[in-house]
Amino acid sequence: MTEPIALDYKLGYLGERWDQSSYVASNLSGTVWLRDLLSHIYVLIPVLDKRKHYFVDPHELEKLIEKGESWLLEYPEKELIANRYLRFKRSWAREVLMRLAIEDVIEEEAAESSVVQVADRELTEGPKDAA
């Protein structure tokens, strides 16, 4: 949840009232590992900051894949996040999401393969005794 931070009217020029600032206060809650939280923040700060001041190059794709590999595909707004992180270079955003999806499929296939191998081994060798 975010709330705009009001500017202090006392600091205004000759007592004029200032509008809302461009800054917001945000509260995060949840039980997560710190590394996961920092990964999210690393990606979401540039997404929320409309005044990103540095040049976006192909290295940013790798950074987004590295920092978002464990969670980005699960987000309902993954396209928006990728587009904003990469400063609306839509082809790059599509590439990131496609690569993350491919890695996800590969990991799922590897997990299924290991389950099948264990099941096959148990069928041929029989269950292992705990003794």
What would your notes on this structure say?
This protein is mostly helical. The protein has one domain. The chain is built from four helices and two strands. The chain has a two-stranded antiparallel ribbon. The mean pLDDT is 78.
Widest β-sheet, arrangement of strands: 1-2
Report the mean per-residue pLDDT as an integer. Answer: 78
Number of domains: 1
Q: Helical stretch count?
A: 4
Can you write the helix and strand succession as a string?
EEHHHH
Stretches where pLDDT falls below 50 for ≥5 residues? none
Give me the Rg, rounded.
23 Å
List the main descriptive attributes of the protein structure presented here:
mainly alpha, single chain, 131 residues, 9% strand
Short description:
The protein is mainly alpha-helical and about 130 residues long. It has helices at about 35-50, 60-70, 80-85, 90-125; strands at about 1-5, 20-25.
Secondary-structure blueprint:
Layout lengths: L1 E5 L13 E7 L7 H15 L10 H10 L9 H8 L4 H36 L6
